[in-house]
Amino acid sequence: CVSANFSQLALAVVASQTALSAYMIHLAPALADKGFSLTYAASIAGLAGIAAIPGKIMIGYVFDRMGKTSVSIGIMALVALACTLLALDSKSLAAALSATALLGISAGASAPEHVVAEAAQYFRSQGYAVEDFSALEERMSFAEPLDLMRMKEGK
Length: 155
Hints:
single chain
């Protein structure tokens, strides 16, 4: 049997990660719908990837200084603030940049590897069968538009 605490934790993690992923996937089209050009919207959305780097770096330090519950609530609050900024301020560049940076920081901070390992260890200590796992390597890729690549190649 699965405990109520485990069920609540699993539901919260799935819900928050689904919301964050949905916003990240649809961010550039949503910004284009607000009036930004497609290129400009994609550039703004790219800021999320850059902002994820300090989020990933800072989260370990913050977890060591504050309780895991407080930090988790803080991460979810950043996502909620970003969603609110995007929903309330329709065409503001400052709001779009701020919301995107908050989403990126939240994405970077949302699942640091040591937290996943600690969670697995905790669940093992509570009697759950947790299989050994290895962390996936993260890779960041940058793409150039085909027209730009052709121009550089002289075609």
